[in-house]
């Protein structure tokens, strides 16, 4: 990889090319399968995988916001074919890396010296590469093993360009609705991700705030970091797709799922408003000793107190059978304008949110919930597809990342097929109001 394409024209051209290639492949598929020559026939799964590989190849050139959106699409939502989700999962941490020359240039530009002068040992071949930067193994002069993240060139400029393009595309689908607040929320978080000093501070905050024998955070080395280079202690573990290839037994799947479930609910139990907001498989390492390493703190969201209280009250009201309170909260949170209206969109939104509340409540009601249950996945996927039919944006801009957290967690638990003891989580949710009022 050389420099990222920074101009809006170049980046939109790459996106357009990806769309043309994908569309062309589908046309050839339908034409070929209609012809009698069997050599031209191709099954849908092979076609989907081919298109997914082609799409990710193009988006990998862009990095930044474009690749971040591909990550979001890789969640297990049923919106995309399974083959797309499998391939796009690779975008979490395995995209083509910067070449040696560009690594040296980027490091020297950020630090003022070459890696060999700064570290005792530095590996130019990245062992992980994702949306904003890539990670290299290094060793400092005290012999400590480090993971050194180096930012790609032109990332901030590319974010501005991609979100401007997204705003134009989205406006054509949602002409009546103002997307500016929601897109500005995405832009703010993405721009924050380009500041590695901020990420280092986030890492320190999480290390001090959350204490669990099963969660481990890397140590931040501020003396080897700046806004474009981030140095942390090296954690050795496997990503989710690698773990699943090992075919772990059910107890191991249950354990790792429980750790992630408990980590999420620890935020609620401790009445914390700052959440890790980028819950996807690339940001977790599964260690041989049973711990889970959390390794990326670029995307962190502090929710306003009234917003988070409202989200928790929605679940509390539905779990306790207070359906009128649930509906009132939907109005307060700007999901519903008139809950008694017969207008089609209003009814569809209310039905969809009620269905999701019922599905989520079912998780909390059962002492042990089995995320390998295919009916749960099917219901969730059906809701996503129904939601895609509602061409209207409702709710606060803060839901952009709240939804990413919730659905990111559910997606990982479904991939693991974990059986989760939900009791502590339910206690944390039902106890939130009492703690907040105290």
Cα-atom radius of gyration: 23 Å
Average pLDDT works out at 83
The level of helicity is: 55-70%
Approximately how much beta-strand content do the residues carry? 5-15%
- Outline, from the CA principal axes? globular
Separation, N- and C-terminal Cα atoms: 54 Å
Classification by helices and strands: alpha+beta
In terms of topology, how is this protein built?
Elements: H1 8-34, H2 44-62, H3 64-73, H4 82-89, H5 100-111, H6 115-118, E1 121-122, E2 128-129, E3 133-139, E4 145-151, H7 155-173, H8 180-193, H9 196-209, E5 215-216, E6 229-233, H10 240-245, H11 250-269, E7 274-276, E8 284-286, E9 292-294, E10 300-302, H12 305-319, H13 323-332, H14 344-365, E11 368-370, H15 374-388, H16 399-416, E12 419-421, H17 423-437
Parallel strand pairs: 5-9
Antiparallel strand pairs: 1-3, 2-3, 3-4, 4-6, 7-10, 8-9, 11-12
Helix pairs in contact: 1-2, 2-3, 2-4, 7-8, 11-16, 11-17, 12-13, 12-14, 12-17, 14-15
Task: Summarize, please.
The protein has 17 helices and twelve strands. With 438 residues, the protein is an alpha+beta fold.
Description:
- This protein is an alpha+beta fold and 438 residues long.
- The protein folds into 3 domains: 8-91, no CATH class; 96-129 and 132-234; 236-438, no CATH class.
- The chain has helices at 8-34, 44-62, 64-73, 82-89, 100-111, 115-118, 155-173, 180-193, 196-209, 240-245, 250-269, 305-319, 323-332, 344-365, 374-388, 399-416, 423-437, and strands at 121-122, 128-129, 133-139, 145-151, 215-216, 229-233, 274-276, 284-286, 292-294, 300-302, 368-370, 419-421.
- Strands 1, 2, 3, 4 and 6 form a 5-stranded antiparallel β-sheet that branches. A 3-stranded mixed β-sheet has the order 5-9-8, with helices on one face.
- A hairpin with a 3-residue loop joins β2 and β3.
- α12 (305-319) packs antiparallel against α13.
- The longest helix is centred in the first third of the chain and has 27 residues, at 8-34.
- The protein is globular, with a radius of gyration of 23 Å.
- The termini are far apart.
- Residues 26-42 and 434-438 have low confidence and may be disordered.
